Amino acid sequence: MKASDYLKWIGNGQAGAFLRLSSNLKGFYRICFLAKAGKMGLLQALAASPLRLEEALDALALSPEKHAASLKAFLHLGVTLGEIDPRRNRYALKGNLAKAMAKPEFDALLSLAEEASGLHAPYIAAALSEEVEGESLRALSDRHSEVIARSSKIAEPVLKSVLDDLLPESGPCAFLEVGSGSGVYLLHALSRNPELSATGVELVEELARNIRRKIMDAGQAGRAEMLAGDMWTLDYQEQFDCITLFNNIYYFPESDHPKLLEKLYRWLKPGGRLAIATLCRDGKHSIDAIMHMWSVMTPGASLLPEPGAFTALMSKSGYLAKTVTPSRLDSAMKVFVGQKPA
Q1: CB 332 within 8 A of CB 282
Q2: Most buried residue, 44, 143, 262, 304, by most Cβ within 10 Å?
Q3: Nearest to 67 by CA among 57, 58, 76
Q4: What's the fold here for domain 3-102?
């Protein structure tokens, strides 16, 4: 490049913009790399011990003939991102984020990276595109249902606290969870109150099977029932003291919200409470914005709720309703609590 062209490149702001874009691309590539490395088990393998290339291939059950070059290139990407350290012909974890995402207890972070790279990025790419059909986006979301259930556990500390406020620590209590996801809140409810009986409803059969297995492992099979299927096919009459829908109201079309609230109202005992936790469309974070865009673009989904309007809808359906912000860390997360008059 000629000196005059170089000075022009700097002077018109293109060089600065290029550096800023490069810096942001590195962050994007980092998320994609960590998501894939975690999903394939590479992070976990390297966390256990530094590995030579052939040892990494063996740990991942990959064919050396087919995958040696690709894995070496993939690891090189991790090196350039600062997440992998090539020590004496062995690869080890280097970055703090890679080390964190390799830990089983941080699976929600790994799942969020998978969700961002595998679901959010394609949604952004598909925005305002006439070539992309809505049903293909819905199918993409369905394929990520297990990942979404895992990533939603990031809100677990906040929503466990919400559940503690709703459920008594002792005494008979009938609890229903609509959309159980990973089952973490159902199991928390069972552990909180030894006299509580729980019913979970989960549309995705695989998730329901996983929850049943967790209930069995926890020795709670006699107190819990896990149903796989559509909650619209069920019918109860004043059976539950508490019903929750955590991070799933947007899976119900907005036109069905009045019918949903009325149905759940009939299922509650007098004095029982319904709690709906969700991100709202007035959020200030990028995750709120991408979820709002998801809700707009996905067939069958509803827009993220607007707090005032949704509280008013609950009141119209007969509930004594209020809106709660459970955590200052995420002001976009709201819990809509409605009590059936005693």
Answers
A1: yes
A2: 304
A3: 57
A4: Arc Repressor Mutant, subunit A (1.10.10)
pLDDT of residue 328: 62
User: Distances from the Cα of 257 to the Cαs of 176, 225, 302, in angstroms?
Assistant: 18, 25, 9
Structure tokens at 79: 């090196």
SS (H, E, C) 270-320: EEEEEEEEEECCCCCCHHHHHHHHHHHHCCCCCCCCCHHHHHHHHHHCCCE
**3-11 helix and 14-39 helix, angle to the nearest 10 degrees:** 80
CATH match of 150-339 with 3.40.50.12780 = no
Q: Which two tokens stand for residue 152?
A: 């939603």
Banded pLDDT at 341 (limits 50, 70, 90): very high
| All CATH 3.40.50.150 domain ranges in the chain, comma separated | 150-339
For 114-157, what is each residue's pLDDT tens digit?
999 999 999 999 999 888 888 899 899 989 988 988 888 888 98
Mean residue pLDDT across the chain: 92
In terms of phi and psi (left: phi > 0; alpha: psi -120 to 50; beta: otherwise), the region of 181 is left
